């Protein structure tokens, strides 16, 4: 008996680092701050999250912000910091790439490229990461259909790179209570019609920290292969997205509830 | 430790029939055909589903169909049939009310009134069911914000009836892969900001039977107080919504997975 | 040469009152307050607007408000007032009907029934106005497709009433700058694929009075058969929708610009 | 008396080529094929359209197609062809730029850069065209709010380039009859709250050629500074977007109707 949706191809595991993988019952957690802000911040978060099983450390250094007046990220310095601290705590690291010229130096510094929602239709960028051999996490565009999203993944795969992870992060609708509308049906669809692993980002989907834990668990039960969450050591002082970031205690609670559910589901099968 | 979202007020139980209730850890299943089609159909479905714990039998008799050329329901004869078979199998019954003039006879025949998505803004109808003493299941309008939905519930409550169950059934978005987009964030929001129990209808939300089981389970984990699903003894011959109806075997599978999860969560607390 | 979209069937004229009609180059203006508030208010508005050619006086008396705490309309007294003042100034009158039980007395008092956006899917109400012999203005539901809207019109027509006027009033989208998003493509579609006259309501579509004049003119040029606008003698004191109501001077400006364009287009043909 | 929306700042004219400008009553037409396909095609279109007043020739050479299997454009060879034929017929030319590395050679070949809908949030690309001194036409993202669109323009302007033209091309909604939903309210908003000229693209907004002429005229009346339309000498054979391209005769009809309206409005003021 299976708690996973029927028809799901979960047999393929994608290695992301030493002992870190996604797919075939390896549930992945990607956690870290919206933006890398400095050594102290990142160290504190990395130290805490490094106790989690099967985790990737996230941290934005090139931030595509709606307003040009908002904090745009630490850039190359931030990427170097992320790389160094990831190595120190033995965590694979992921950061968003926003321009193909960044590959030249990011390739030495990060383990996974993230394509953000705003760049899902940026086919030139998709082609370029498709020429690298690093895993690519492809977020769904904020108004992209499931079909368009899978075709965007094809731009990567046709250029030679099949290490693709999809990320559902909410779609834009008329509802304003949440920042976006999390589409968990898309998780079921992706598991049924594609062979890519998929993670869910409840932080960006809702913009509300009180929704992250219940929706992360719902995502797991719906069949997601992992979650991506924003975590900050001091959310109120965060330079970006503080209102949707878990603090370290809340993060600990999230992990323990997800581990409980993962264990139950394995026993159940 | 709780698997339910924090801040949820689940202490209020609403009785729906002998031994049937919703709220405060009583997880409700509402199941039955889209439309009551005849005695044989309804008997077969009622007989099978009556083995489920804490269940309400659904069946539409006044069908608000997009096209006037589609089957419009059996009307009063259907309501009588639903009532009789409900009593025979000891199941409370729910049907959709589409006009306040139906109250006169439905009041003797059904246990719960359903206000459909198309009538969520029909405030005259809301006022009239608000004057009855029967529980009302209020579906979210297909483009209604959470705030508008709660204000629609106020139209019922201000007329004297506080036996309200909300039902999330998907919202209309640009995505065409699913019939609507199920908004599980709304479940978390409702549990946080209101005192109403809420059920989730994955059948109408997705229009795809293969999505019903994973999303029903995800709804439970996100904090829903129940699910509403379309079940038919012979989905291929159904006069309405066959493509999104579970057959009896699939329904059995749904129930056993939901019961497993419910039990786990109680143990966990 | 035609400034109207090709393929439009504008040859059918629907009479709405003595010397008032819509279709076949008779451009209709429907104007008046969101809600009938009292004799002085309505008299002042009727007196001013009665100088307009081919006009219908609007005024809501049963107001389907999102919140039950907002002003719900004057009801029957308002309908009587609207009827009396319409007769006094020789203006056909339109009001929204929200429940079929209102037909009994509204039938003596109004010239046109309006089905509001919230009731477009209220098929029982559509059937009932379909049994009357009065023209029906059918607003598009806030999330209704063009196809669903035309099928809603069929509910009226199949019950015997083919005096139908459609009204585009904006659809619900992600954009929050305007109250809704006016869909002028729908006007072109309706003129191409149906035989119904169509009016445009820029007041509800935008919720912003500064947009009413340019969009009313654009609607005319796109092929609409009329416009419906909210006008108030004292918008700041209006009990409903003041921010989207023209005052009398602005209304005069609107009419003179629409008349200029209508004249030009006739000369051009 | 003005037919233009009040509050509009139309006093600033932006020069786009010898005798070609936009703003302050200079109504611009941008016309040409979706994609440059070859010398014969482009010559025929350029020859015909070059008789139009105040026109820019468009032609895509880097095509961001949803599917990687669709025609991706002629690339640099196409850009050279567009440049040569533009010069031959004395037409300024515009093409879409999809990657900042294209600036190096496009800068010699085109007069205006187009940022497509899919790249409106590609802030790195916006910054790079902001460093050039060429006019930039910035299409609205398919799910971008008016505010986000204006902030995207700020990314260009803050990098030193204030030669910006906005282009409304329809937004993504639930409606499927049209490819997108043209938002003419956005034209009125932009004229009221910004100083940028704005053009409207009814071809992409609707995906239906029969809607182009009525909506182009409606756009003009709503206050747009120009229109952008797809024109092909043989739409049925077009490699891209044939169903929404005008043929040369239809284009001629569009231009004559727009010129008539432009003249009337000038006389009226």
Describe the structure.
The structure is a homotetramer of 269-residue chains. The first copy, chain A, is of the alpha/beta class and 269 residues long. Chain A has one domain: TIM Barrel (Alpha-Beta Barrel). Helix content of chain A is 36%, strand content 15%. Chain A has nine helices and ten strands. In chain A, the strands form two sheets. Chain A has an eight-stranded parallel β-barrel with strand order 3-4-5-6-7-8-9-10, surrounded by six helices. The first copy, chain A, has a two-stranded antiparallel ribbon with strand order 1-2. In chain A, helix 4 crosses helix 5 and helix 8 packs parallel to helix 9. The longest helix of chain A is centred in the C-terminal third of the chain and has 21 residues. The relative contact order of chain A is 0.15. The N terminus of chain A is likely disordered. At the A-D interface, helix 4 and helix 5 of A face helix 4 and helix 5 of D.
């Amino acid at each position: 008996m299976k708690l996973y949706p029927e028809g799901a191809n979960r047999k393929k595991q994608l290695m992301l680092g030493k002992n870190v993988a996604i797919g075939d019952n390896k549930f992945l957690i990607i956690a870290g701050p919206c933006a890398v802000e400095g050594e102290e911040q990142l160290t504190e978060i990395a130290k805490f999250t490094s106790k989690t099983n099967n985790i990737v450390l996230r941290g934005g250094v090139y931030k595509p912000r709606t307003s040009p007046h908002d904090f745009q990220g630490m850039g190359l310095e931030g990427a170097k910091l992320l790389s160094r601290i990831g190595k120190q705590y033995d965590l694979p690291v992921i950061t968003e790439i926003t321009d193909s010229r960044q590959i030249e130096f990011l390739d030495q510094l990060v383990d996974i490229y993230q394509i953000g929602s705003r760049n899902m239709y940026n086919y030139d960028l998709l082609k370029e990461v498709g020429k690298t051999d690093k895993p690519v996490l492809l977020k769904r565009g904020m108004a992209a259909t499931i079909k368009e999203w899978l075709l965007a993944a094809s731009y990567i795969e046709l250029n030679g790179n099949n290490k693709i992870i999809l990320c559902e992060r909410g779609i834009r609708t008329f509802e304003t209570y949440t920042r976006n509308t999390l589409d968990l049906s898309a998780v079921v669809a992706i598991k049924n019609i594609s062979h890519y692993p998929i993670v869910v980002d409840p932080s960006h989907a809702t913009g509300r920290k009180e929704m992250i834990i219940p929706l992360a668990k719902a995502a797991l039960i719906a069949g997601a292969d992992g979650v991506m969450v924003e975590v900050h050591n001091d959310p109120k002082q965060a330079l970006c997205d503080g209102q949707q970031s878990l603090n370290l205690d809340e993060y600990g609670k999230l992990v323990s509830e997800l581990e409980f559910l993962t264990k139950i589901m394995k026993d159940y099968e």
